[in-house]
Amino acid sequence: MRMFLTAIMALCITNIYAQTIIKGSVKDPEGNLVPGASVTIGKNKATTTNDKGEYQFTDLQPGKYTVTFSFIGYETTGNTVHLKEGETRVVQVTLVAAAEQLQHVEIVGRKESGYRNTSSFIGTKTATPLKEVPQSISYVTKELMQDQQSLRVGEVVKNMSGVSQYTSYDDFIIRGFRTQNNGQVQLLNGLRTITGFWKQPLTNYLERVEVIKGPASVLFGNSSPGGIINRVTKKPLMEKRQSLSFSSGSFNTFRGFADFTGPMNTSKTLLYRLNLGYENAQSFRDLQFDKNFIVAPSISFLPNEKTRLNLDVVYNRSMSRLDRGQAVYGNNDIYSVPVSKSLNAANDYLNEDNVMITTSFSHQFNKHIQFNVAYLKTIWDEDLLEHRTANGYAKDSANRELPTLVEMQVLIRKRKVFSDNVSAYFTFDVNTGVIGHKIVTGYDYAQSKMPWGAAQSVANGYRNNTNTAAGAYNKDNPGKFLYETVNGVKRPVPNVPHFDLTSESPYQLFDMSKYFYTKSNYDATFYRTQGIYVQDQLTLGKFQALLGLRYDRYTDFLNYTKKAQQQVVQEALIPRIGLVYTMNRHVNLYATYTEGYNPQTASTINNPNAGGPFDPLLSNLIEAGAKSDWFNDRLSVTLSAYRIRLKNVLYKAGDAGNPDLMRQVGQVESKGIEMDVKGQLTPDWYLTAAYAFNESAIKESPKASEIGRQSPGAPKHQGSVWTKYSIRNGKLKGLGIGAGSNFVTERNVDGNDIQTLPAYTLVNAAIYYKIDRFQLQVNLNNIFNKTYWVGGYDYLRLFPGAPRNWLSTVSYVF
Fold first, then answer.
1. Do residues 394 and 498 make contact, with C-beta atoms less than 8 angstroms apart?
2. What is the C-alpha separation between 227 and 183, in angstroms, rounded?
3. Residue 16: its H or E element
4. How far is Cα 134 from Cα 539, in angstroms, rounded to an integer?
5. Contact criterion met (CB below 8 Å) for 227 and 211
6. Which residues form the signal peptide (predicted)?
7. Cβ atoms within 10 Å, residue 29
8. 159: how many CB neighbours lie within 10 A of its CB?
9. Which of 231, 258, 280 is the last residue of a domain?
């Protein structure tokens, strides 16, 4: 018996030591161990190095293996190993810093993964490491969007310092300034586009969302003084990847997404990517829903190392209702009405079609000269019917407000907008002695046109005494109007029934034929902007300088296509100076000065009732800060301090007869500090955090009461944190946990010194479980069910945030 047990033990020991193993460690050029480096064997076996930079593959079969090592910022390297039965082979590797030149135009997809992004085109129009851009740039990657299930840019921006929602529309505050003021101009892949304002599109086709802080006019022409948002679409990859995901959750939400990419031929000169999206969701807001279809194909042609061509299309079909916000009682009690109550009717609708087609081309003549050109065509189509507030409370016969009744109006509108943007530039990489230069010189052209055919019908006001028309109520001419008595109160009869905020069942299918309409056509509008610019990025030892100058010419066509047509031309010469000093391998210090401008006429703000033409917005930025990388360059930290001065800003005029009328005040100054943290603390521990302090106040105004008051919609403090930890080994292998919080302090509402929005803090969490190619994910948002508002114009148009909600997602990668 003893001999039998001894034989069994010997056999077990032999089997243990007979395992065939490859193991080792990965170091950087300075000899430091590298956690989180990717190590692969063949097509199916992959791992990452642990906290000590070590890796191991066990239970291998004898044979020939190619072990490949890769890590962000380093060359991919590989070793071939011939394994014998029972052999343990130790393979050590020292990575070499990547020497490959960054692509001048973003045509091939980003190789990085995780919460950290290392380079961008938005800061210099060339692929420049973010650490070397002398201006603050915040961003959110697709991996963070997926972990949080943030499917709208409004949900994404909470992870950025100094950026918050102004309303629930595509409408944001950056460093105290509202971005919507520049006519809904956005950037898509660094090109100017004008899209629908009312609904934020899905983000499933985006690689990242990024914001360059402060005036960016020297790069992109007229833009908001606080900053500009750039949406970067996913580009084709050289390796085959396919994924599907399906989500369901609160408010009857269902979403399905697909992402396919890879080479289309064996030589990998033709690449493709196709993103598909479908959403069908209700809302916590009564009568609200969103149904979206997205098709986003992209094709890249790489005939040789010097030539690149890309075609990128995004088509979004949106069917929904327009939510004009929540109204509360006229006594300014913000909690008097449930946040779920909207002002819509059951037969309202908003249908939008948005097409964006981008073609980009890049050719490198030699190692010193490269040419880049890109063209973006945008088509936006709106078909709208809405019951909405008339921006006031109902009146009795003495013209006194009835605080629980809201005046209503109906809008029926159809319109199309077309925009075009061409950007062409050369880059020159040259040296003058010991000074290196990267020179960019180019020309931009952009135009936007709303042709004839746009029209709307509006029903509002009070009915006349013969019930044949409607108009604004005049208490001094009471005999002109029709009256009714309700609950003992005599009041004029509205053209569109008032909305009763106290009613528990206010929603109806209204008979649209019973209203009296005022019909009008939108005049055709057209504007164009042209810019010529030159920029030089100089390098001398530890110092870098960025010098830029742009001449921009903006032309607005008043009375477009009419006999009285005339051109209103505004010109600007825009400088930019930036300095970067490399303290050590971890920290860069920077400082910058730049100017900006933004024309603002009735056509550019898309509202002829606003008045104008107005003088252009003129701004300047002074900013200084530090950018650093830590934890073996896995974690980046940016700290900045800034001051922005803006002249000629528009505010509401307070005209009861024309609530859309705007007026100009003298000067607004915004100053503050910001911090952004992005990346990984360990290979399994991801982190993003942001904080911003901002004082944005009117410094010069005809109204003394406005001076020193914080700008509408701008919080003084805001911040966020999100972290995710995944378990790689043991019985809980594949399990991950995410959690975070974001807060925003009190904000003023659209210039009214009485109405404010309260501060709020939200807590969110998620749990993940990954097994093989499947991942199960559940997100729980607003865990403590806080009542809060993301923004608003006034107490008749508030935009509440969602109560506690959940979303479950199943994804499969193959």
1. yes
2. 14
3. helix 2-17
4. 13
5. yes
6. 1-18
7. 10
8. 27
9. 231
Least confident of 58-67, 159-168, 444-453, 759-768: 58-67
Q: How confident is the model at residue 368 (pLDDT cuts 50, 70, 90)?
A: very high
- Taking the C-alpha atoms of residue 419 and residue 91, their distance in angstroms, rounded to an integer, is 56
Give residue 602's region: left, alpha or beta (phi > 0; psi -120 to 50).
alpha
pLDDT tens, residue by residue, 525-558: 899 999 999 999 999 999 999 999 999 999 988 8
Nearest to 416 by CA among 457, 456, 445, 452: 452
Please answer whether residues 443 and 428 qualify as being in contact, where contact means their C-beta atoms are separated by less than 8 angstroms: no
Report helix, strand or coil for 115.
coil
Beta bridge partners of 80: 66
Q: What share of the chain is helix, strand, coil (3-state, %, to 5)?
A: 5, 55, 35
Residue 482 lies in a domain: no
Distances (CA, A) of 295 to 26, 207, 240, 290, 777: 41, 15, 19, 16, 24
For residue 500, is it within any domain? no
Q: Are residues 441 and 572 in the same domain?
A: yes
DSSP state of 501: T
Does residue 797 sit within a domain? yes
Q: Are residues 542 and 560 in the same domain?
A: yes
Please name every residue paired with 528 in a beta bridge, in sequence order, or none if there are none: 447, 555
Burial 469-490, CB ≥16 within 10 A → b, else e: ebeebeeeeeeebeeeeeeeee
Q: Beta-carbon neighbour count of residue 445 at 10 Å?
A: 16
Total number of domains constituting the chain: 3
Which residue, 591, 626, 587, 627, is CA-closest to 117?
627
The residues pairing with 74 across neighbouring beta strands, listed in sequence order, are: 97
DSSP assignment string, 199-250: SPPP-TTEEEEEEEES--HHHHSS--SSEEEEEEE----SS-EEEEEEEEET
Residue type, 616: P
In terms of domains, do 31 and 147 share one? no
* Cis peptide bond upstream of 613, omega within 30: yes
Query: Residue 750 in 3-state DSSP?
Result: coil
Domain boundary pick from 184, 213, 231: 231
- 272 with 149, same domain: the answer is no
User: If DSSP codes are grouped into helix, strand and coil, which group holds residue 344?
Assistant: coil
**Bridge partners of residue 439, in order along the sequence:** 428, 536
Question: What phi and psi, each to the nearest 5 degrees, are found at residue 404?
Answer: -110, 5
Q: Are residues 528 and 654 in the same domain?
A: yes
- Please, are residues 797 and 389 in contact by the beta-carbon 8 Å criterion? yes
Condensed to tens digits (0 to 9), the pLDDT of residues 566-577 reads 888 889 999 999
- The encoded tokens of residue 591 equal 């400082």
**Calpha distance 599→618 (Å, rounded):** 9
- Expressed as residue numbers, the domain containing 78 is 2-94
Kindly report, residue by residue over 664-713, the tens digit of the pLDDT: 777 899 999 999 999 999 989 999 999 999 999 888 777 777 788 898 89
Among 34, 84, 85, 91, CA closest to 57: 91
What's the CA angle centered on 219, arms 213 and 224, to 5 degrees? 45
Do 50 and 198 share a domain, yes or no?
no
Q: Which two tokens stand for residue 608?
A: 């002829």
Nearest to 472 by CA among 655, 657, 661: 657
Looking at the whole model, is its pTM more than 0.85?
yes
Task: Please state, in angstroms and rounded to a whole number, the distance separating the CA atoms of residues 371 and 442.
Answer: 10
